[in-house]
TrEMBL record:
<dbReference type="GO" id="GO:0016787">
    <property type="term" value="F:hydrolase activity"/>
</dbReference>
<dbReference type="InterPro" id="IPR051693">
    <property type="entry name" value="UPF0046_metallophosphoest"/>
</dbReference>
<dbReference type="InterPro" id="IPR029052">
    <property type="entry name" value="Metallo-depent_PP-like"/>
</dbReference>
<dbReference type="Pfam" id="PF00149">
    <property type="entry name" value="Metallophos"/>
</dbReference>
<feature type="domain" description="Calcineurin-like phosphoesterase">
    <location>
        <begin position="47"/>
        <end position="269"/>
    </location>
</feature>
<protein>
    <recommendedName>
        <fullName>Calcineurin-like phosphoesterase domain-containing protein</fullName>
    </recommendedName>
</protein>
<dbReference type="InterPro" id="IPR004843">
    <property type="entry name" value="Calcineurin-like_PHP"/>
</dbReference>
Amino acid sequence: MSSPFHRRPFPDYLLSSPLVALLYPLHHLLLRLRGPPRLPPPDSRPIRVVCISDTHTLEWQDVPEGDLLIHAGDLCNGGSAREIQAAVDWLRKLPHPQKVVICGNHDSYFDIRSRCAEDRDQSFAAISSSTASIRSIDDLDARHKIDWGDIHYLQHSSVTLTFPPLPQPPSSSSSALLAPGSRSRALTVYGAPQIPAIVPFGPEHAFTYPAQHDAWSGTIPANTDILITHTPPQSHLDLSPIYSIGCPFLLAETWRVRPMLHVFGHVHAAYGIEPVYWDEAQKAWERLCTSRRARAQFSRLSSLLGFLRDLFDISGWIDSARVVVYGVLGVVWAKVWGGENHASGWMINAACMYRDSGRLANKPQVVVL
């Protein structure tokens, strides 16, 4: 059977649900036609965000310039402090004024349950040689701390970043209006590493939880502007619409918080960027993905019956109509009436690793907020 992390051939999608497989490109076309989500506030500077993930000990040689660099986890492969420090040293050399990093399931040093042998041996050696009272291995973090330099490392935590105003040309008029970029901006960034264990990951994988467990509800601060997770949410850049392996509980949490940008990785084959709109079209699309995801867990014989099931799935046809109707209304609102997409944002799967090739071929993603 194919790995759940590999993209299936198009016939598999078509057999499992021809309705959703054919609706998928139309849905994404309507998303693109609606235009860029959520423009910067008037008179405030735009912020150029560069997103990478899943570099797995490798270094991208030409990272684009920007105001903020985000790495969404899997800095390395083996997970040792030595490997992680090497990746951090590379990131520290990059010129971006602000940098934020979270870990992924391969960065096992950050999860004490999953530390590799060399780090465990060092920890126990430090305990036996120390004359101080050390209550737990966690107390050794001060001794085995990664040297982050100017990088903000987030693990179930937030940081508020301030971006100063852009330089303004001299003006002889004291009453001149403020030009775009003349006001500073602050963005609150939250990062969390946990991933659902949809396959039996070994003990060396960090921050895994059972796929049916809710590890997200109520965990993300409501004032979060940028959300960084290692796992994708269900139905967005996670091999959806049918073979989705993102977390449904994370998706529900993003609906509560509605960040302007959500960056993740983990699923290399689902690399990409998509606009999201917190509206009826998106709700209907996600319901379709959820119902087809459950259906896709059955055998191939069940998948072959997808065509007949879609014919008689009245709720599926209604949700498909909602996706199209509300999507078209969104395009009319943005392009004809000139409305702004306030309830919107971006989702980015920034995995730089090309599938399981062992090489970085997916370019860093850049978005302006």
